[in-house]
Specification:
Elements: H1 2-21, H2 35-44, H3 50-58, E1 63-69, E2 72-77, E3 79-84, E4 87-92, E5 97-98, E6 104-108, E7 111-116, E8 119-123, E9 141-142, E10 145-146, H4 151-177, H5 185-205, H6 210-230, H7 245-261, H8 265-272, H9 279-324, H10 331-368
Antiparallel strand pairs: 1-2, 3-4, 3-10, 5-6, 6-7, 7-8, 8-9
Helix pairs in contact: 1-4, 1-6, 2-3, 3-9, 4-5, 4-6, 5-6, 5-10, 6-10, 7-9, 7-10, 9-10
Length: 372
Amino acid sequence: MLKNNTIKSVLFALLTLVYVSSINAETSHEADVNHEENHEVASEKEGYDPIPVIMHHIADAHDWHFFDYNGHSYSMPLPVILWTENGLVTFMSSEFHHDDSGHHIVEKNGMNFVKSHEKIYQLEAGATKAEFDEAHHISNGVRPIDLSITKNIFSMLMSVFIILFVFLKTAGHYAKNGAVAPKGIASFMEPIIVFVRDDIAKINIGEKKYMKFMPYLLTVFFFIWFNNLLGLIPWIGGANLTGNIAVTLVLATFTLIITNINGNKEYWGHIFWMPGAPWPVKILLMPIELVGVLTKPFALMIRLFANMTAGHIVVLSLISLIFIFESVGMSAVSVPFALFISVLELLVAFLQAYVFTMLSALFIGTAVAEHH
C-alpha cells in the first residue's frame, strides 16, 4: 500500500510541475528592480539602502545571480522564451546588454527587446532604445508572452528532479524487498510518509477515505518542504520559490479543486441551505458560506507566501546592519542573530509544509465527512 502511494505521488509531482510552470513567476513581485539599477541608485545615496538588495534577492529573475566581485557580477544565464506576434523567440539571458538609458536590450530576429525591472518588452518597429512615461513605464513597447525559465522555475525543476529521485529510490526498495526493514533513503522517508498518513490524513479525513487523498497530500508536503529547504541554501538554492505568491496560488487552487470536487451532499447542503436554521438565516448564511469556500484556500496561499518571504527578509535585514552602520563590529551582533534565524528557518520549512498539508487534509475531510 505504501509503495503504491509513493509511486502515485511521483505522478502528482509531475502534474504539479506542469501547472506551476504555466505561471510566470515574475508577476508575483511588482516591486522587483534590476540589480544594476539598484546598485546605481544605492551608490547615489548618502548611506547604504538595503531595500533594493533585499527585494532583488526575494524576487524572481531571468538569470541566477551568485555574487559580485571587483565590480563584476557572476551569474548563470537562463533561457529566455518569448512568444511574440512574429512567433517564438528564444535566447539566453546573457545576451542582454545596456543601451544608452542603462537598460538591458537585445536584438533578435529583427526585433529589439528590452528588460526593465525584470520584465521584458518588445520595442516598436524601428525603436532602438526604451522610452518612458511619467510613471517610468516603457511607452514604446509591449510585453510578449513570457515563457522563460526564470530562477524560480529552474529551482522548481531542480526540486522536482530531487523529489523524483528520492521517491523512485524509495519505491524501488519496497518493490525489491517488500516488508523488509528499509535502508538508506527509504529508512529516512518511511517515518515521514507514515507521519503524513497517520497524523495528518487519517486524523483529518478519516479511516475510510484517507487513502484516496494520500498521493496529493504526500506530494504537496514534500514539494513544499524540499523547496523551503532549497531556498535556505546560498548559491545552490537561494530561490524564493515558496515565497512566490504565484506558486502558493497554484498549490492552494489544487486544494480548492480537490476539496470541492469530492464534496458530498452534506458538505454542499451546509453551504447552500444550512440544516436546522430558520430560512431567513439560511438565506443570510448562504453567501457567507460561499465566500468561505474561497477564503480557506486564500488563507493557505497567503500563509505560506508570507512566512517564507518574511524569513528571507529578516536574515537579509540582519546582515544589512553591517553595511548600514558601516562597522565590522556590528557583525558580532548581526551574524549570530542571522545564523539563529537561519537555523530557525529549518524548523519553519518543515512546519509550513506540515501546516499547509494538515489544513488541506482538514478541508478535504470536512467535504467528505458523512452525516452523523
